[in-house]
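so my prof wants the structure for this chain in the tokens format not the other one, which i didnt know existed until like an hour ago. anyway here's the sequence
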Amino acid sequence: MISGVPRNFRISEHGGLTVEAVLIIPIVVWALTATFVFWDAFKTINISQKATYTIADTLSRETSAIDTDYMTASHELYDYLMGGAGNNALRVSVIGMSQDPITFQKSMTLEWSQGVGGVSGYTDLSVLKDRVPDMAPGDQLIVVESEQEWAPAFAVGLASYRFREVAISRPRFAPQLVWDG
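here's what i got, hopefully its the right format
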């Protein structure tokens, strides 16, 4: 006997699997649940990016003027692509580039900006200026921004988050995208 414990008790391995299972099963359940939650977050980001690019692509192909009904329909299309109506928003802004013929100084202008789903359009170009790439004089860019609310299904360390995506495209079949409002 060593320190009051019988030898056969010290050598016995009966019940070892039960102790290991009691220790490891909560970790495995948490890992599976966390994997599901992280996968759901990345799936939401991926679908939101693709839906935003789809809206930007449809706007880039438009040859007619855009109005409030078109924006509402685009928001409904975004809802559909996201898999149902949720707490999301859509903003479309058109930015133009002009050049002074004497000084050749280029300047960006905010042609129009409209939002739907709880966001409003921009009134100032300063918010978008850093996101917009360099353009040729006379060009226009369509900036589509989307916001999608996401909440985890289980509490595994991630909090609710509002994903924001931006897609920039140029008009394809018309020289400009016009707001009819």
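also thought this was worth mentioning. The first helix runs from residue 7 to 11.
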